[in-house]
């Protein structure tokens, strides 16, 4: 029989077999696997990114996208453990919080959620363990700080609670809106005040802000004044705004004697028998009622400058320009001073009054022209026994002059008569 001629493979079949060699097939499979993995990783990266973005606003949706992420699971657990949460919600929140800590042992809010739920269930020991762990992780979580304060108060640990107040206010200064009112009330408590003074004497960064807040906001202004005086004895400087607010609060509550005592303690050399600052040198953005107070009413202008008080009122405009509260004991006194640039008819000149609080005027004195006696002036006055609190005031009279009324005081004081 004739031998069959060998089959000559077609060129395309040969190329296909060469391309599909075991090595080539392995490379193709590997490339397919890599491509699939890259696609999967890309999907995971996108879902993880989205979950992180929405975990605070939509914790349930974030958890559905990335249940493996500890922070996401912790956020979802926290959302289920609110004040109105049911028992089943809290149980699920606990499971999620434990799951979150397995994924991420640094998930502070998961530990805090376990602590709050334990307290709701009456397991204080478990709550303290959970919050203790959260405290070791971070001191920036508000719930951890507030719980630590409450727990210290419940245990009667005053200094411990103040330590947590200090930590909370250092970490989150805006918590002053919540915590300052509580501390202000605590400052009036004899059992708390010494520890609070010690805390403020250490110069915490929130101390000045708290002192400014507390001034004038306490239930009893006398307690606030006593608290402030104790701070001063410990070397804590009181902001001028706090001093003025404390004085004003005492006066509003009718504690005039205490107001003067507090003022005198913060102003060396203050003497109730004399007015203060005769040469207008003690400028302050926050004057107390025992200091000079300049009054600008929108038309007349008045300003205290170094060494002078300037005033100006347009035609036909008058009113109060300057005043100072007094605590002059009964007796005879002398009002004296010096002026510049006052040149008006007698009917238009500024004038001084001394009035008793609630009992009328005891003196009125018209300022002379500055050309008379070199601008110096003096007047006698008598404070009666039934006039414990007075007000020294300077008024402008309406003037017909086209230039209105202008002038300057370079000195003004009340002193005991010789």
- Rg from alpha-carbon coordinates: 39 Å
Beta-sheet strand percentage? 15-25%
**How is the largest sheet built, in terms of strand order?**
1-4-9-6-7
Order of helices and strands: HHHHHHHHHHHHHHHEEEEEEEEEE
Summary of the model, kept short:
The chain has 418 residues and is α+β, with helices and mostly antiparallel strands. 47% of the residues lie in helices and 17% in strands.
SSE layout:
Layout: H1 11-19, H2 22-54, H3 59-65, H4 70-80, H5 87-103, H6 108-120, H7 124-137, H8 142-154, H9 158-171, H10 176-186, H11 193-201, H12 207-214, H13 221-233, H14 240-252, H15 256-266, E1 293-294, E2 301-305, E3 308-313, E4 319-326, E5 331-340, E6 351-356, E7 360-366, E8 376-383, E9 390-396, E10 405-416
Antiparallel strand pairs: 1-4, 2-3, 3-10, 4-9, 5-8, 5-10, 6-7, 6-9
Helix pairs in contact: 2-3, 3-4, 4-5, 4-6, 5-6, 6-7, 8-9, 10-12, 13-14, 13-15, 14-15
Describe the structure.
- Strands 1-4-9-6-7 form a 5-stranded antiparallel β-sheet, with no helix packed on it. Strands 2-3-10-5-8 form a 5-stranded antiparallel β-sheet, with no helix packed on it.
- It is an alpha+beta fold and 418 residues long.
- The radius of gyration is 39 Å and the shape is elongated.
- It starts with 10 loop residues before the first helix and ends with a strand.
- A hairpin with a 3-residue loop joins β6 and β7 (360-366).
- It has helices at residues 11-19, 22-54, 59-65, 70-80, 87-103, 108-120, 124-137, 142-154, 158-171, 176-186, 193-201, 207-214, 221-233, 240-252, 256-266; strands at 293-294, 301-305, 308-313, 319-326, 331-340, 351-356, 360-366, 376-383, 390-396, 405-416.
- The protein contains 15 helices and 10 strands.
């Amino acid at each position: 029989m004739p031998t069959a001629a060998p089959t000559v493979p077609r060129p395309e079949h040969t190329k296909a077999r060469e391309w599909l060699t075991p090595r080539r097939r392995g490379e193709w499979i590997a490339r397919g696997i890599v491509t699939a993995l890259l696609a999967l990783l890309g999907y995971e990266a996108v879902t993880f990114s989205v979950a992180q973005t929405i975990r605070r606003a939509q914790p349930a949706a974030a958890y559905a996208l990335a249940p493996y992420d500890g922070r996401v699971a912790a956020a979802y657990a926290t959302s289920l453990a609110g004040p109105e949460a049911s028992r089943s919600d809290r149980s699920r929140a606990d499971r999620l919080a434990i799951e979150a800590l397995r994924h991420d042992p640094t998930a502070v809010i998961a530990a805090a959620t376990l602590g709050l739920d334990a307290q709701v269930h009456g397991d204080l020991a478990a709550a303290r363990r959970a919050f203790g762990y959260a405290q070791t992780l971070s001191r920036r979580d508000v719930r951890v700080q507030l719980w630590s304060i409450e727990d210290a108060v419940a245990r009667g640990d005053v200094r411990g609670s103040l330590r947590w107040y200090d930590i909370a206010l250092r970490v989150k200064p805006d918590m002053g809106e919540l915590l300052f009112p509580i501390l202000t009330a605590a400052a009036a408590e004899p059992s708390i005040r010494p520890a609070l003074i010690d805390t403020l004497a250490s110069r915490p960064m929130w101390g000045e802000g708290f002192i400014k807040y507390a001034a004038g906001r306490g239930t009893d202004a006398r307690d606030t004044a006593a608290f402030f005086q104790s701070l001063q004895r410990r070397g804590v400087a009181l902001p001028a705004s706090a001093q003025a607010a404390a004085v004003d609060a005492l006066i509003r509550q009718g504690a005039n004697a205490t107001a003067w005592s507090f003022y005198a303690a913060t102003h060396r050399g203050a003497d109730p028998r004399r007015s203060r600052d005769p040469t207008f040198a003690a400028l302050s953005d926050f004057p107390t009622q025992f200091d000079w107070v300049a009054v600008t009413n929108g038309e007349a202008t008045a300003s205290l400058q170094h060494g002078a008080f300037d005033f100006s009122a347009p035609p036909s405009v008058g009113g109060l320009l300057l005043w100072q509260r007094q605590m002059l004991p009964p007796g005879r006194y002398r009002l004296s001073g010096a002026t510049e640039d006052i040149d008006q008819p007698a009917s238009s000149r500024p004038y001084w009054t001394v009035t008793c609080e609630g009992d009328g005027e005891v003196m009125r004195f018209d300022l002379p022209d500055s050309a008379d006696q070199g601008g110096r002036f003096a007047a006698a006055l008598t404070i009666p026994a039934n006039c414990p609190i007075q007000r020294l005031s300077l008024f402008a009279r309406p003037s017909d002059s086209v230039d209105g009324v202008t002038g300057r005081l370079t000195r003004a004081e009340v002193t005991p008569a010789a």
